[in-house]
User: Fold these one by one.
Assistant:
Number 1:
Amino acid sequence: MLDFGANKLIGSIPNQLNSLLNLTHFWVDENNLTGTIPNWIGNFSFMYALSLSDNNFEGSIPNAFGLLTSLGRFVIPSNKLSGTVPSSVYNISSLYYITFTQNQLQGELPQNVGTTLPNLEKFSGGVNKFTRSILVSLSNASKLRILDFAESGLTGKLPAENFGSLRSLFKLNFDDNRLGNGKTGDLNSLSFLANCTNLEVLGFSRKCFGGELPESIASLSTKLIIFTMGGNLIRGSIPIGIANLVNLTNLGMEQNYLGGSVPDVIGKLQKLQGLYLKLDQFSGTIPSTLRNLTSVTRLFMEGNKFEGSRPPSLGNCQNLMLLNLSSNQLSGTIPKEVIGLSSLSIYLSMSNKFFDWFSTI
């Protein structure tokens, strides 16, 4: 085992290491290493865990990595790697943990990866430039816990009926892809995810999903802590069944076409820390039940059609740090209960004009 991780090493991996043929674990993650990844690593036939993440490696992933037939963990995210992932890597059946996020990789993902890698527990390749639809065969990887391909250029239909068999799934993130067609029925597949009883993170932001939020949201895992669907083409209202997701800490429904009143049951989500409902078409009054969100630190509801007074009940949100209610149709004075919040130290906007310079927070 050789571990040089989390130092300030520079330069390339020295060729003198190529004689360490009995290596099973090799970690050089979190350094400032440069150059290409050496081909001779493919000679380490006993290699089980390889971590090269968080460096500045360039060039392609060596084809010789397909010779590492004992490999279990393959970790190379946050580099500057380009080209494709060698197809031979996907034939290493012992692999259970593979991540190559935040590189410049491209090409097509093999459609049979769930069959050739049946032991997968983590499969992450987000922030790359892939060009194919989601891998239906992943339903065969019954141990899969984390599937994260955000910002990776995937297209096609979300095959949630296949993911419904992934009972161990903990994180499912496809933010910033193109997996919908903007029409009614895009989200009906969410009902299949009710079988994923261990799901805690669900990311479907900016995918061109259309239609209405289905009532099946109420059947999603009660373990869910992060649920993001912002930047889509979703219409209708928020189903009252959202109240069943009692462990949510972050709920993102911003930049859709959602309308009607925000349901009072939103106040039952008492673990919420971030609530994002900006740039929709909500109307009516801001529900007074928001005062129950005593853990919330970020509340964004700007750019809607809310009416009535600016709610003094928000003064009960003792951890609130950022609040934006601007660009609505609110009236009355700014409540002293809100101004008096000592936690409100980063951003506050209650103007009926719209200022969005803090929208990226």
Number 2:
Amino acid sequence: MKMECCRVYAFAFVSVLIFSPVVHSWGVDGHLTVCRIAQSRLSEAAADAVKKLLPVSAEGDLGSECSWADRVKFRYHWSSALHYIDTPDDLCTFQYNRDCKDENGVMDRCVAGAINNYTTQLLTYGNAPSKYNLTEALLFLSHFMGDIHQPLHVGFTSDRGGNTIDVHWYNTKTVLHHVWDTSMIETSETRSYNSNSDGFIDAIQTNITGEWADQVKAWETCGSNTTACPNTYASEGIKAACDWAYKGVSEDSVLQDDYFQSRIPIVTWRLAQGGVRLAATLNRIFA
């Protein structure tokens, strides 16, 4: 009987590994960084709206719920395709009408389409009643604004944004996508901030007001009468993927200090852009 139970549990575990969708997301610390940066830059009106829309359990902290969209993927199966964009291999370009679709070819089901959708939903804030769940809209938008700034969330179709490229991160076997989601952030935190995400976030905040200060206005800017600009963010993402994430990497590459030291500035720069742009978008929505 005991042996039979073990077989059942083993089968269930293997089934989860086989049938679970590929994970596409900054790690928890990446999303926390984007949302903490954004919340520090909100206007009074936007800060008030965010506080009212957050679940009580968040205690007013947007960062604490910034990975919610990952946690609900197994309950909201339809949402998995909204975390990324697959583009044609080696073109290094994004075109919404060509690329923003899911694996079944359904249009608008990609991270750029999701940002447009949840921005539109949040623009109904203040209407009584809104037909949308605006708490979920806020949490989805905040998460997806982070995702679209991770370069391999706008990656090549054949390798699913680096998810099928096996590499070694120093001595640890992983996939290229995970290196960009999590490994580089964790390595930076361990080496420079005593494994403390707060120190990592503070350093990026310092760069936003210092080294990158002259870029911030351009990051915040969207076209006239446009609330969010996901096409711009996605185009930047696939370019960064080609120039930095994929470059010099092949199956079973060993990625160490040269890769880390040349790429971590891109990781922190994109996290900064994601946070600044999330704040700017929320400020426009709740103006």
Number 3:
Amino acid sequence: MKNRYPVPERRWFVGLAVVAFIGAALFLASTIRPSDPTSLCPVSHGIRARTRVDDGYNPTPTQLSAILHYATSRVVPQQSVSEIKISLDVLKSLGRPSNFLVFGLGHDSLMWASFNPGGTTVFLEEDPKWVHTVLKDAPGLRAHTVRYRTQLRQAKDLLLSYRSEAACSPPNAFLRGNEACKLALDNLPDEVYETEWDLIMIDAPKGYFAEAPGRMAAVYSAAVMARNRKGSGATHVFLHDVDRKVEKAYAEEFLCKKNYVNGVGRLWHFEVPPSNDTSARRFC
């Protein structure tokens, strides 16, 4: 997700920025309905002046910052246009401000936040220095530093051994303070545990060298959050880089093929329903 190093400007990115923010504006327009628009628009000599409110469009500060950023930046999001569109379509289909949790903070973070006007968009990042770098230019983003207890080279062993740890099993699975289960993110900020997330994007942490944290804990924890949801409806979980063995194996183990909705490129989309099955021995 981070895509920290600039790459040459791509012609398609201009089109992406335009499509993305038109979509965000349309989403915003669908959620804002002034109760009495005439009271906001003065009438003079029988002619009423038009304002952005009349058209149902009133951009948020985050959207304006995002438009400026992507109009002037030479750095592009890591996901492709078709991959981004899957998440954007889900946000638009919900028809309301949503709770959106994103694993990873990067040059595309302003875009994700702008797609969810009025909602709660929170980013989780493993590198404190990178958080400082991003927030320096985008102070309006909500981001937290996360400490991971895993390394990518442990992925196979963790997948084979987690079933023998009671604190990891589906009926008992929890996150906050769960030190016994290495796959559980046990030290997240309170707001992450106390919010029921409508969407979870997993595009971090790093997972391309042996000492990297890998995305094992992120995938497991997202599955636990979704299964423990108290409200109605499923949690939309998006996993990027499914062309890699670890991401694919953990998706099949914890997010489940039966919950797979669609995918394109290197992105898979799942709808994970709440579960109160106290006898389940596996997630899938």
Number 4:
Amino acid sequence: MAKIQPLAAAASQSPSDYQRSQRAYTVWMKSLVFNGNGCTVYGPDGAVAFRVDNYGCRGGREVFFMDRAGNALIRIRRKGFGVFRRWEVCRCTHNGHEDEESTPWFTVRRAEKGGAAVGMHGGAGTCYRVDGCCVRKSEYKVSGVDGTVVAEVARKQTPAGVVLGEDVLTLTVPPEADHLLFLGLVVVRGLINRSL
């Protein structure tokens, strides 16, 4: 399996409390499968943690977010057409056999000003907002209903200060947050912009 090196903290810099409490994932918007569409997520230790392989066309109607062993964790389906288009995300559970069950988790809809609104299944209204979701930029933020930033995505930067390509991103989330939720949002954003 592929492995990248985690960022080493510079000895001369003292990280702020905010940076120390965050956890970073590297998201490479390329599939590890030759001629496949998808993305690969590297954990803080530099090893492959998750992957998405879409063997169909870019922006397919259904993709699966898998762990490194190939077990589906999340199923993402595109529903509706035009302005009524939405992405429904379900958690996948395995009962020990090849049977797989999916429970609805959250829905993503386009919102005004190039953003997206995230609503949890069974919840009332919007829970999160993805700012800059429908814009062709690599940097965007996920905010809660009160406007506080709960996750950030930016282009990956090496310790020497070199900014990597548009397809190598860093997702920064707090350690107490559900990391799978925010990783799922990165995949949905890739589907919205047809980069997967």
